């Protein structure tokens, strides 16, 4: 069945370093992917999205890479800051049979060390 | 503030009681979603509205759960005869037809 999973549950990086958070998906029918950031006690916050007809998309300090061959996407955060500490979720749309609902992975806790 | 709002932010109830949560989406968003999130997990889809029509329901949405969006604006999620397993964060999100879903802060439910 479809699933969206993350490689590591936790990631610690030094302030100023780059962070890479990985995500694997199992259904080749997935056609839209989103990264969300969730801080403690808050709802998920949209970071960046990418459609399956692209392999890279850049935002402000963030880049998402999509490798459809191995069903893998990653979120790269440049010059990681303390405010980036949060749980990061990848989510996909399209594999669940619904064109609208999102299927989330279980999250990676990013900790930025001073 | 033009974001998604949810009320209450926290709810503690005893097993067997009914609870109701409210979500106010971003104005002009025609789509509204409810998700449930347990500790350490990603949100799980519960149900989806387009305007006032409930178009999709997850298998997670048991008969004790009911959601409404009577005027196509705010929505309510009611849980009847709450069980301890219902303890979770209930998240609401909204979107327009083409773009990403914006989430509210959630309602944290604790069933004692």
Characterization of the model:
The complex is a heterodimer of chains A (114) and B (112). Chain A has 114 residues and is an all-beta fold. Helix content of chain A is 0%, strand content 53%. Chain A has no helices and eleven strands. In chain A, strands 2, 4, 5, 9, 10 and 11 form a six-stranded mixed sheet that branches. A five-stranded antiparallel sheet of chain A has the order 1-3-8-7-6, with no helix packed on it. The mean pLDDT of chain A is 88. Chain B is mostly beta strands. In chain B, the strands form two sheets. In chain B, strands 2, 4, 5, 6, 9, 10 and 11 form a seven-stranded mixed sheet that branches. Classes of the chains: A mainly beta (114), B mainly beta (112). Chains A and B meet through β5 and β10 of A and β4, β5 and β10 of B.
Number of strands of chain B: 11
Q: Oligomeric state of the chains? A: heterodimer
Give average pLDDT of chain A, whole number.
Answer: 88
Instruction: Give the CA-based shape of chain B.
Output: globular
What does the main sheet of chain A amount to?
6 strands, mixed
| Count of individual helical segments of chain A | 0
Biggest interface pair, counts: A-B, 22 and 23 residues
Strand content of chain B: over 45%
Q: Which stretches of chain B are low in confidence, meaning pLDDT under 50 for 5 or more residues running?
A: none
What is the tally of helical segments of chain B?
A: 0
Determine the strand fraction of chain A and express it as a percent band: over 45%
**For the terminal residues of chain A, how far apart are their CA atoms?**
41 Å
Strand tally of chain A, please? 11
Strand and helix order of chain A: EEEEEEEEEEE
> SSE order of chain B in H/E notation?
EEEEEEEEEEE
* Main β sheet profile of chain B: 7 strands, mixed
- Radius of gyration of chain A from the CA trace? 13 Å
**Average of pLDDT of chain B:** 93
Weakly predicted, low-confidence segments of chain A: none
**Shape, principal axes of CA atoms of chain A:** globular
């Amino acid at each position: 069945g479809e699933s969206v999973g993350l490689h590591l549950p936790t990631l610690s990086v030094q302030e100023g370093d780059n962070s890479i958070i990985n995500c694997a998906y199992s259904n080749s029918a997935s056609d839209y992917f989103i990264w969300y950031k969730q801080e403690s006690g808050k709802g998920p916050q949209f970071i960046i999205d990418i459609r399956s007809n692209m392999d890279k998309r850049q935002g402000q300090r963030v880049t998402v890479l999509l490798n459809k061959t191995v069903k893998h996407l990653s979120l790269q955060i440049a010059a990681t800051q303390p405010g980036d500490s949060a749980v990061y979720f990848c989510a996909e749309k399209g594999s669940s049979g619904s064109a609208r609902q999102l299927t989330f992975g279980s999250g990676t806790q990013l900790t930025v060390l001073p | 503030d033009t974001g998604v709002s949810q009320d209450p932010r926290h709810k503690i109830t005893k097993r067997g009681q009914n609870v109701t949560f409210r979500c106010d989406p971003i104005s002009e968003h025609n789509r509204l979603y409810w998700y449930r999130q347990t500790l350490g997990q990603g949100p799980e889809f519960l149900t989806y509205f387009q305007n006032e029509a409930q178009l999709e329901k997850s298998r997670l949405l048991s008969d004790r759960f009911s959601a409404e969006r009577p005027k196509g604006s705010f929505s309510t999620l009611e849980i009847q005869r709450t069980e301890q397993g219902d303890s979770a964060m209930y998240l609401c999100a909204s979107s327009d037809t083409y773009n990403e879903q914006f989430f509210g802060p959630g309602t944290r439910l604790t069933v004692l």
